[in-house]
């Protein structure tokens, strides 16, 4: 069967209000039979309790038709087994989830089958179970066919014995499940759970022996930069949609603004709200969105960004706060993925290395800042290390740290000296290449590093090791960095690690100075960003580049 789940023209389709599913149902009879059931279900909490068939937009029917129309009744296999829907808040996600899974329960032929709606919290689980239970109770025929148990959040098919369960996810609730049909509600919340990947694998493992099954993930955008399993799935969904990766068993449907609308702030125009709110005028009030946008524009970036993420499906790049470092506003624009470690060294005439690190509960941050030959612009590459114990002590950021490790920007170590050894090796290489001006460090807690640097002749005595001023004394470096970001003469490697750290910086002003500190004590790590400021402290003094060796022409 020839089809593709890629939709490379999605930007044109979404602006025109066309379907984001690039093919009709693979098995039209299966789609039609399932839609007959789905469209007859009643949305009890909507005015007049209309049916899905009478109340929902065509995009809903297209999505449901694609799910059930992927089932081949002759082989008993589903041609597309995983579906992903990302859409703005209040577009009837939980009600849609209930309708899809109730339809699957009714259409299922397997005796004693398990169907599962997996929610991140008890409250979210209730949001999916209640509309499903209401759909049964309002229909006399369904009440005879299905048995609702509110205290167990379970609906049982009286003939097949199949059960639809709505559960708040943890390892205990999903362990041993053999569900043929799984719907994951609000996937973005799972992104902050460090063990979510293993838990979801356990919950969906039953599909191995149930080829008719499916997994559907329905989510809004995250209220923070995407992380963990949510980031992985979102990135993969975009790659499949854009045709970068071929996966005919995975169908992504993402209601988000085209890039030019993000760059040009077209998402702020109420005339474009329909792009990420296909239910606008039904479950989504355009007047409410306009009123709330007007209010949010008068608030700080932190509140505004959450509104954009939830109601306009705009991904948060950095969590920009009202008391943020001003340089954060320019950070994303100065990123260049081509600025690898090797690229910075090969393009620079001189290099300053900044280092900042605390105890075993912090990151050990390193910034390699080079002054480019010719332009004299500053080129920055960053890396960080952390001890594996941080993953247990700081569970709220564990999934982020694992993401950074996967990106290659963070190294998680077990041996408490492994980070120091790696840092000294980098410094030794820069020195060997004749580029090192100095190493600028936060002096606190770096006794072991200072001893290790002495072994490669980087010491305070010869000026190659400098203690960078901290606290309010760092104000000049902070201001210099933000000015050079603003005028484009400081560029960096564009890592997600540094975007997160820069977004975590809080600026505390006094009458005469400022200092950089963490926005949230403990979890909001900023050490790699502070390493950058340490390096800027020295680079702003305009250190001299090594002179080229002089050659004398000999005449014979």
From TrEMBL:
Domain of life assignment: Bacteria
Domain (Terminase large subunit-like endonuclease): residue spans on this chain: 257-538
GO molecular function: endonuclease activity
Residues in Terminase large subunit-like ATPase domain copies: 63-237
InterPro entries, sorted: P-loop_NTPase, TerL_ATPase, TerL_nuclease, Terminase_largesu-like
Pfam families, alphabetized: TerL_ATPase, TerL_nuclease
PANTHER family linked: PROTEIN YMFN, PTHR41287
Protein name: Terminase large subunit
Annotated source species: Paenirhodobacter populi
């Amino acid at each position: 069967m020839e089809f593709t789940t890629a939709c490379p023209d999605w930007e044109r389709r979404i602006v025109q209000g066309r379907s984001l599913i690039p093919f009709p149902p693979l098995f039209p009879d299966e789609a039609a039979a399932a839609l007959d059931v789905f469209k007859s279900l009643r949305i009890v909490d909507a005015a007049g309790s209309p049916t899905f068939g009478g109340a929902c937009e065509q995009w809903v029917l297209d999505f449901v038709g694609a799910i059930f129309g992927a089932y081949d009744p002759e082989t008993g296999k589903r041609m597309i087994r995983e579906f992903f829907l990302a859409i703005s808040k209040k577009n009837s996600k939980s009600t849609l989830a209930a309708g899809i899974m109730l339809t699957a329960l009714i259409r299922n032929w397997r005796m004693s089958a398990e169907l599962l709606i997996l929610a991140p919290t008890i409250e979210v689980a209730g949001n999916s179970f209640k509309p499903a239970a209401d759909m049964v109770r309002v229909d006399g025929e369904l009440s005879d066919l299905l048995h609702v148990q509110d205290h167990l959040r379970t609906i049982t098919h009286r003939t097949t014995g199949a059960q639809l369960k709505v559960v708040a996810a943890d390892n205990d609730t999903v362990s041993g499940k053999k569900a043929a049909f799984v719907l994951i509600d609000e996937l973005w919340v799972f992104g902050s759970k460090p063990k979510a990947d293993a838990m979801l694998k356990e919950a969906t493992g039953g599909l191995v022996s149930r080829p008719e099954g499916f997994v559907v993930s329905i989510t809004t955008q995250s209220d923070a930069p995407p992380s963990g399993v949510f980031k992985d799935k979102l990135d993969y969904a975009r790659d499949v949609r854009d045709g970068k990766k071929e996966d005919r068993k995975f169908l992504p449907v993402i209601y988000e603004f085209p890039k030019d609308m993000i760059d040009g702030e077209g998402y702020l125009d109420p005339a474009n709200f329909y792009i990420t709110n296909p239910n606008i005028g039904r479950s989504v009030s355009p007047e409410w969105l306009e009123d709330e946008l007007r209010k949010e524009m008068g608030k700080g970036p932190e509140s505004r960004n959450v509104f954009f993420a939830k109601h306009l499906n705009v991904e948060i790049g950095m969590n920009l706060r009202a008391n943020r470092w001003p340089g954060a506003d320019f950070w994303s624009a100065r990123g260049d993925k081509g600025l690898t470690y090797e690229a910075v060294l090969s393009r620079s005439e001189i290099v300053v290395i900044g280092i900042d690190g605390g105890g075993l509960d912090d990151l050990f941050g390193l910034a390699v800042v080079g002054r480019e030959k010719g332009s004299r612009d500053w080129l920055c590459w960053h890396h960080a290390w952390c001890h594996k114990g941080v993953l247990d002590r700081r569970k709220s950021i564990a999934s982020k740290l694992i993401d950074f490790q996967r990106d290659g920007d963070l190294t998680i170590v077990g041996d408490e000296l492994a980070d120091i050894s790696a840092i000294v090796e980098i410094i030794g290489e820069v020195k060997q290449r004749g580029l090192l001006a100095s190493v600028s460090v936060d002096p606190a807690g770096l006794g072991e590093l200072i001893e290790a640097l002495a072994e490669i002749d980087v010491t305070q005595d010869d000026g190659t090791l400098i203690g960078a001023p901290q606290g309010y004394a760092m104000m000049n470096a902070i201001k210099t960095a933000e000015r050079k970001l603003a005028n484009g003469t400081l560029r960096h490697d564009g890592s997600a690690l540094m975007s997160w750290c820069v977004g975590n910086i809080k600026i505390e002003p006094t009458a005469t100075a400022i200092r950089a500190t963490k926005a949230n004590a403990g979890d909001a790590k900023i050490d790699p960003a502070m390493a950058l400021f340490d390096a800027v402290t020295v680079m702003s003094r305009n250190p001299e580049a090594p002179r080229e060796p002089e050659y004398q022409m000999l005449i014979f």
